[in-house]
Design goal:
globular; Cathepsin D, subunit A, domain 1; seven-stranded mixed beta sheet; 2 helices
């Protein structure tokens, strides 16, 4: 799958502070990862600190918190990780699934997930 970015809006849980950004779609990342300074400026509060494994198997600890993510008319609360202030903004699998979106690898775009009737 090629790498592509997607415009999103992120906001604190009160919805009072938000910012529009471009994030790289990364289905290999579980959580969406955004710069710590950005999340702090928006008022996103850390709720836990967890250990992640980098591609080289090195452990790294990051805070996680909850924020609103809006993408293409879909808005959901998701868990975000407080990443490096200079790191890439990543849109992870948990957020994509929460928004009911999947990756079209050929078209390098996000498409709605079709649900089976219950």
């Amino acid at each position: 799958m090629g790498i592509f970015s997607q415009p999103i809006e992120i906001s604190d849980l009160s919805g009072q502070h938000s910012v529009a950004i471009d994030a790289v779609v990364d289905t290999g990342a579980f959580y969406s990862i955004l710069p710590s300074y950005l999340l702090q400026e928006l008022g996103v509060e850390p709720i836990d600190r967890i250990t992640f494994r980098l591609a080289d198997n090195q452990p790294i600890e990051m805070d996680i918190g909850h924020a609103w993510i809006t993408l293409g008319g879909r808005r959901r609360i998701t868990t975000v990780a407080f990443g490096s202030d200079t790191g890439q903004l990543l849109l992870g699998a948990l957020t994509l699934e929460g928004l009911e979106l999947a990756v079209d690898p050929h078209g390098q775009r996000l498409v709605p997930i079709e649900h089976l009737p219950v």
